Amino acid sequence: MATKKRTSTTSCPVPKGKLLLIGGHEHKGDAPDEDEQAAKNINFAPETILRRLADEIGSRGPLIVIPTASEVPEEAAQDYVRAFKRLDGPPIEVLNIKTRQDANDEDRLRILDEAGGVLFTGGDQLRLTALLGGTYLQHRLQERHTNDEFIIAGTSAGATAMSTPMIYQGRNDAGMLKGEIHITTGLEFLHDVAVDTHFVARSRIIRMAQILATNPACVGMGLEEDTAVLVTEGRELEVLGSGSVVILDARSCSTTNIHEIAPNTPFTLRGMEIHLLASGEQYTLPIQPRLYA
Q1: DSSP assignment letter at 21
Q2: What is the pLDDT of residues 173-200, one digit of tens each?
């Protein structure tokens, strides 16, 4: 007998802020391969994602670049300082959080109070959660996302860290065997959604499927390079950029054996839905947003 899909019509308050999750390698206006990319893709539009971020911030305040995830934070931050200068975008301030003490420092928190948005650069998402998780900085960002017209953006690791659960370990070609993929709690701006980046270029669909097999209540979101989703009201997606967004939905899957098999054994997952979304597409995540006081 076919399984009836469950739908929810319950309304609830939604965050006033927005999220911009970027799949990595977004074009900043100085990439030497832009002409080659444009020749391959007639929909290619350089700087679309960063220009949209600038437009969303407008004149509400500076954009705070947080390069904490990067091993070369000064270099990572300057890439965006130059990019937004070329775009005639908002003023840029760099907030390099190096320790958990930095993330609890009141002077640094006041910088966030005057900002129009923040941008987490790429690097290692585990650095973000280890240094920012449970700090006043994380809570302040959650409060601003809930209560203000404020945008939180992240690229590559910066996007992966926004969600809960968060992937933090697993080779690109891994995922078929139980236990190859590791997850932890992300920064909790987006709940019940697992985000992975460089999704098509690095063939990461199998590792996302393993996460959903372990908990089909979560939704998988795979972001290709130079591609992003703008999240409004905590669940409404708009796709931006030159690639595809892959949504994996296993809530109505019929079978999984991942709870029964031994580690390092291939798993089964049947009945998972996959949606491919190109630029301009809209999609409603099947989740309920969570708010912070």
Answers
A1: E
A2: 778 999 999 999 999 999 999 999 999 9
Q: What are phi and psi of 216, to 5 degrees?
A: -65, -10
Strand partners, 286: none
What percentage of the chain reaches a pLDDT higher than 90? 84
Closest Cα partner for 159 from 57, 230, 62, 210?
230
Q: Extract the tokens encoding 44.
A: 């290619």
Calpha distance 252→270 (Å, rounded):
9
Extract the tokens encoding 260. 């029964």
Taking alpha carbons only, the member of 236, 242, 201, 253 closest to residue 222 is: 201
Torsion, Cα 208 213 217 218, to 10 degrees, reads -10
Query: For 138, phi and psi rounded to 5 degrees?
Result: -60, -45
Q: Whole-model pTM? A: 0.91
Residue 33 burial by Cβ neighbours in a 10 Å radius (0-12, 13-18, 19+): exposed
